[in-house]
Amino acid sequence: MSNLPPFVVLLLPLTALLQPTLAAYAYTSTSNETPKDNSADCDCYVVQSGAQSKTPEYFQYYRFYDFRNLPGAMSDTPPQVNDTQIAGMQPTWQPNLFDSDAWKYDWGIQNWSKDATEDFPTPMNNSVANVYLGQDDSTSYLALRTARQEEYQTSAEIENQQKNLMHVSMRMYGRVQGAKGAVAGFFTFYDDDNESDIEILTDDPTDQIRYTNQPSVGKDGNEVTAASFGPTDLAPWDEWQTHRIDWLPKNSYWYLNQNQVAANTYSVPRKQSFLVLNMWSDGGEWSGNMTVGDSAEFHVQWIEMTFNTSGPYDGGERQRNEKRDGGLFARKGKGCKTVCKIDDVKQLGTPEVVHSGAMGMGISWGLLVVVGLVSVVVGY
Ligand SMILES: *[C@@H]1O[C@H](CO)[C@@H](O)[C@H](O)[C@H]1NC(C)=O
Ligand SMILES: *[C@@H]1O[C@H](CO)[C@@H](O)[C@H](O)[C@H]1NC(C)=O
Ligand SMILES: *[C@@H]1O[C@H](CO)[C@@H](O)[C@H](O)[C@H]1NC(C)=O
Ligand SMILES: *[C@@H]1O[C@H](CO)[C@@H](O)[C@H](O)[C@H]1NC(C)=O
Ligand SMILES: *[C@@H]1O[C@H](CO)[C@@H](O)[C@H](O)[C@H]1NC(C)=O
Ligand SMILES: *[C@@H]1O[C@H](CO)[C@@H](O)[C@H](O)[C@H]1NC(C)=O
């Protein structure tokens, strides 16, 4: 230090102090029920979907949730919720983030629990204390944890508040680490019969992921083989990967790092749904048992989704509004003048225009297929 010119000596502690605050921005919500994040000029968003990722699909809204540069990340895993505590009553470790209005506008952290049954012998209690902001080098991430106590399993679940998704292409950059006997879930949910899942089982080898449309168990109690695929030879889930579900009107497609790895037409959800992330175990056949004292974590750096909606934001009054919304959209006859892409963009989370209606003439949604195909051919 003493060899450095005096002004550098002065600067060093200053930058050390300033760097973390410069890099970190508080969690913000767009607080918008019809979001077009970082892309106010886009009328719709195109993604390449389908079996060969060559079929353009269009959506009206876009949301990007970024957990990478948030302040106050913990460098050590917080202590486990233990047998002497009531899991559902534990407070958050980071109230500045998880009790903020912005967070609560977007997410609901769950604290429900379920009792043991014959098939699922470990009682499971969700806890707010199992959801926290961790960090890897200087990048923060959202962490969901599950841990096994003597008497029960503590788990974590967050629900997105946009409860009126009606078809979505959603992506998550995440990894799963820790003990066997846990399940990390990233899925759309309405009820047990309208649910499309990505599930990472820590009992599985790290090159296998489960892709399921529920129900995966029939009324007779038997497994429905058509419901679930578990491809292997995939990029390892204990390292950061981009996971994606495309829920379309008649098809479900799943991707890993933009490669299609599963497809299904069985029980494609038909009801307006919402995004859920969880990390859990209940001692059943699917999750397996976790060893007492062990834990596993699901880490997420960002989530991106482009979607259509049906009915109100909170998912309520479903029946009444379903038809009216379609009608409104049709009456407005706005079409899609400015088409944006969300993949292969310069900055992740910032959609880019691929087509703009010439001389203010809008194109109808029906014509978009042509635009999309042309975009593929000319590579945008
Ligand atoms: C989204 O909504 C628009 C407008 O109604 C429609 O043209 C488009 O096909 C929808 N996208 C999907 C994937 O259903
Ligand atoms: C349970 O956790 C609380 C809070 O972390 C801690 O104060 C307490 O000592 C723990 N109890 C046991 C038995 O580990
Ligand atoms: C777990 O939840 C049940 C309610 O289903 C409750 O009776 C029990 O006390 C909870 N246990 C813990 C340790 O939080
Ligand atoms: C969930 O948390 C709320 C407070 O935020 C509390 O009133 C409620 O009792 C908790 N539920 C359970 C099952 O512990
Ligand atoms: C979705 O929910 C409806 C109403 O609960 C149900 O009739 C239907 O079987 C469910 N699943 C699918 C794939 O539509
Ligand atoms: C989990 O452990 C319980 C209690 O030992 C046992 O009854 C159950 O069969 C185990 N589950 C699995 C999937 O092995």
Automatic annotation (TrEMBL):
Swiss-Prot/TrEMBL GO biological process terms: carbohydrate metabolic process
Signal peptide: 1-23
Alphabetized SUPFAM superfamilies for the sequence: Concanavalin A-like lectins/glucanases (SSF49899)
GO MF, one example: carbohydrate binding
Domain of life: Eukaryota
Transmembrane segments: 357-378
Ranges of residues in domain GH16: 65-311
Keywords (A to Z) from UniProt: Lectin, Membrane, Signal, Transmembrane, Transmembrane helix
Pfam families xref list: Glyco_hydro_16
Name of the protein in question: Concanavalin A-like lectin/glucanase
